[in-house]
Amino acid sequence: MNASISVVAKNSYISVSSKKMVLVTRMIHGIPVMKAIDILSLSYKACAKDIIDLLNSAIKNAIHNFDVHDVNSLYIKEIRLGRAKFLKRFQPRARGRSNRILKHGSNLAIILSVLSV
After folding, report:
1. What DSSP state is assigned to residue 17?
2. Rounded to an integer, what distance in angstroms lies between the CA atom of residue 39 and that of residue 43?
């Protein structure tokens, strides 16, 4: 098996701001996949569920596309986190005015690699 395999899984327009998501993604950067799932499953942050789903998708991509048989040999090589477009909403205020509400989102990409034995 080649050590240069990079498995990518992307999710766009997650309805959590990137400031909140970076707190969780820093915990799992550079560690094995199964340990990352354990850490995320014990996290109190709501965005941890979205990251677990994307991580499971990356694992399935590795199994299906690259014939990786040992899931324990996968580790998180890189996590790319960026801001998505805002959802612009308005809230009515007194005297016929309105306030603008920006609902932030984020784009997330997880890149897995195979540990060289």
Report:
1. -
2. 6
The predicted-structure confidence for 11-62, as pLDDT tens digits, reads as follows 999 999 999 999 999 999 999 999 999 999 999 999 999 999 999 999 999 9
Alpha carbon of residue 17 to chain centroid: 12
Supply the DSSP symbol for 85: P
In the sheet with 6-14, reading across from the earlier edge strand, the strands are 6-14, 106-114, 74-83
Is the pTM for the entire model greater than 0.70? yes
Question: Helix 48-66 crosses helix 33-41 at what angle (to 10 degrees)?
Answer: 160
Are 80 and 111 spatial neighbours (Cβ–Cβ below 8 Å)? yes
The encoded tokens of residue 32 equal: 């094995």
* Measured distance CA(21)–CA(110) in Å, rounded: 13
Task: For each of the domains in the chain, give its residue range(s) and CATH number, in order of start.
Answer: 6-114 (3.90.470.10)
Residues 99-108: tens digit of each pLDDT = 999 999 999 9
